[in-house]
Every structure is written in structure tokens, then in C-alpha cells.
Specification:
This protein is mostly helical. It has helices at about 15-35, 45-65, 70-95, 105-125, 130-165, 170-175, 180-190, 195-220, 225-245, 255-280, 290-295, 325-330, 350-360, 360-365. The radius of gyration is 30 Å and the shape is elongated.
Length: about 375
């Protein structure tokens, strides 16, 4: 019964060849992941499960489309997303050399590669029997997506080559929290005008090239698919769209932009809360209204995180600039105590706090 639906000039006997090509393709990718340095590549948790997902999706869709992975249609569908995957994998490996390079880092990029290329191949195949306007629209859309995807990947790679690090959410804050002129000056300073203009030229050349290749590939006529095959392809397309929607927030620059906007929103919320709290909060003036007077035994501890006393006027009177006006003013009041020569027992934050509040260190406890 199964073979009856797919006997339209394409016997089920050809299925093993599609399975073999998909298996070889996925195996080569994961072998390269392993050779490159990604750890846990051959564990089921995510890596082998992703490999099985990619194998199943490519096997089903290549057989349904009657196009093997080395056909022109698939080469055009795979090229931009495979290039993107290679760039992100290269940067993630080399930017995290001092840390464990877990497969989880590349996990969303690989699945996006699978589903984006699958969806693109389906649109190409359906466009081959459509009118010229439909093919033109698909070609334009493909050109824009390819140009944008590879441009973002090129920016990601360029930033790593310049600063030996990945682009993080905090790098987006100066761009999102200022005007266009200052944002452009920041980008020009961080990346450089030659790189920016090179990226622009790259985009201008890639857009028409992608359009031309796509339009030429989908202009080739083909036999129409059976209704059952169209239904099968449509189901795979829906699965791809749902999966892309799930994993694309993990991709640059969406992930970094979302993280920056979330930080800005949280800082605004905290700032509003802070203003509300501080309006009801009086520390020392007048003395009769001070919190220690109303609530005996209350102790307020001000901890400066990521600060050095060498640059704080309140703790270093010889410092030329008044960098801590509030602390300097508070030192004049009897209810305020500052430890001028307090030296932490540890260089890191978490073990330092218990020592600061208890007076116990590894020297006194013997641990």
C-alpha cells in the first residue's frame, strides 16, 4: 500500500539510494564536528539525536522531492546554510578554546541548517511548475535571505578575527541605547570602516548573484507531484517552519539583540522600583527619623561590586578626582562606618562574602 502512493515514475526501490546519500552527508558533518574539537558529539542526549533527526528529515524530503542531495536544487538549498554553519562552528570552537567546547554550543545552528535548507528545497521544487511571477518572487526572497544570513555570519566571523571573542548581548547595548549617529560611530570604531564597506559590497554583489542562481535553478520544468506526495512534502514544510521558529531565537543577531533589550527593560524596571523605594527610605536625616533609631539593631551594608578603593575618593583621599561624593559625605556622619584598610581574603566574589561577614577564612578554619 505504501509503494502505491509513490509509484509515479519513482519506485520505492530507489529509497535506499536516498537513505545512503543522507547518511553519508550527516556522518561527514558530525565527523567534522568531532575532529574540530566539539565534545559529546557521539552521545545520544543531543548530538546523535540531532544526527538522527537530520538523517530522517533529509531522507524523507529527498525521496519526496525526487532530488538527491548532490542535485543542483539541493546544492543551491544547502550552500548558504552550510556556509553559515561552518562559520559559526569555527568561531565557537576558537573563541572558547579555554573552556569545554560542548556540542550544545552548535546544537541550534545545526538544526536550523537542516530545517532551513529543507524548507528552501521544498519552495524551489514547488516553484518549478509555477508562473514566472511566482518564480521571480521566490528568487528575490531567496536572494534577500541568503545575503542577510551570510552577512550576519561574516560580521560574526569578522568580530572574532578582530577581538578573538564572540559577539555578546552587552556589545549590542551601545547600539540600542543611543542615536543613529553615535551607533554608527561606535560600530565604525569597533569594527572599522573598511570592514563595514567591504560587508556592504559583499551584500550588494551577493544579492543579485543569489537571485540569478535561484531563478535559473527553478526555471527548469519537472513532472508534477501526486497529491499524496504533495501532502507529505507539505507536512515536512510545516514541521520545518515550527522548528525554525523554535531555534531561530538562538541565532546571531536575534539572540544578542533580545538579550540586550531584556537587559534594558529590566534596568528600567529596577530603576523605577529603586526610585519608589528610595523615596520612602531615609538613612540618616534627620537623625531622629533615621532607620537605626526607629529600628534598633538595623545595619546597612554598602558593598561596592567590581570596584577598587584606589579609585574611590572616600577611601583614597589623595585621589585627584571626587569619584565618590555620596560616600565622602556619609563619612562625616557618626552612624556611618567605612573600613579603609579592609582586604578581602579571596580574589573572587562568592568565597569572599562569607569571610567578610563572619571573619572566618581558610587560615582560621584550616580548610
Amino acid at each position: 500500500m505504501f509503494s502505491r502512493y509513490f509509484t509515479d515514475s519513482h519506485s520505492i526501490k530507489t529509497l535506499p539510494s536516498y537513505l545512503l546519500s543522507s547518511f553519508i552527508f550527516i556522518s561527514v558533518i558530525f565527523l567534522l564536528f568531532h575532529i574540530s574539537g566539539f565534545e559529546r558529539v557521539f552521545e545520544w542526549n543531543k548530538s546523535l539525536r540531532d544526527a538522527a533527526t537530520g538523517f530522517a528529515v533529509f531522507s524523507l524530503i529527498t525521496y519526496a522531492l525526487r532530488e538527491k542531495l548532490y542535485s543542483p536544487l539541493w546544492c543551491l538549498s544547502l550552500f548558504p546554510y552550510l556556509t553559515q554553519l561552518v562559520i559559526y562552528a569555527y568561531v565557537l570552537i576558537h573563541a572558547n578554546m579555554s573552556w569545554t567546547i560542548d556540542y550544545d554550543l552548535i546544537h541550534p545552528y545545526f538544526l536550523l541548517f537542516v530545517y532551513e535548507s529543507t524548507l528552501t528545497a521544498c519552495f524551489f521544487a514547488f516553484s518549478q511548475n509555477r508562473p514566472g511571477k511566482w518564480r521571480f518572487s521566490i528568487s528575490v526572497l531567496y536572494g534577500i535571505i541568503v545575503a542577510a544570513s551570510l552577512l550576519f555570519a561574516a560580521i560574526y566571523l569578522g568580530y572574532y578575527l578582530l577581538y578573538n571573542d564572540t559577539i555578546r548581548a552587552e556589545n549590542m547595548l551601545p547600539i540600542l541605547q543611543t542615536n543613529k549617529k553615535e551607533a554608527f560611530e561606535f560600530i565604525s570604531d569597533r569594527i572599522g570602516l573598511p570592514v563595514l564597506f567591504s560587508s556592504l559590497i559583499f551584500l550588494v554583489l551577493l544579492l543579485p548573484a543569489s537571485f540569478f542562481c535561484c531563478h535559473k535553478a527553478i526555471s527548469v520544468g519537472r513532472d508534477r507531484y501526486s497529491k499524496m506526495r504533495i501532502l507529505w512534502i507539505s507536512m515536512i514544510c510545516i514541521l520545518s517552519i515550527i522548528s525554525i521558529h523554535k531555534y531561530i531565537p538562538s541565532l546571531f543577531p536575534i539572540s544578542q539583540t533580545y538579550g540586550a533589550f531584556h537587559y534594558i527593560h529590566e534596568m528600567r524596571r529596577i530603576s523605577q522600583k529603586h526610585e519608589q523605594n528610595i523615596s520612602r527610605f531615609r538613612i540618616y536625616t534627620p537623625v531622629s527619623e533615621a532607620m537605626p533609631q526607629k529600628l534598633p539593631g538595623t545595619v546597612i551594608v554598602v558593598i561596592g561590586e567590581s570596584a577598587t578603593r584606589d579609585r574611590m575618593k572616600a577611601f583614597t583621599p589623595s585621589y585627584p578626582s571626587e569619584t565618590t561624593p555620596w560616600l565622602s559625605e556619609m563619612k562625616k556622619h557618626l552612624i556611618f562606618t567605612s573600613w579603609i584598610k579592609h582586604i578581602p581574603a579571596f580574589p573572587s566574589l562568592f568565597p569572599r562574602f562569607p569571610c567578610s561577614f563572619t571573619g572566618e577564612t581558610n587560615m582560621t578554619t584550616g580548610t
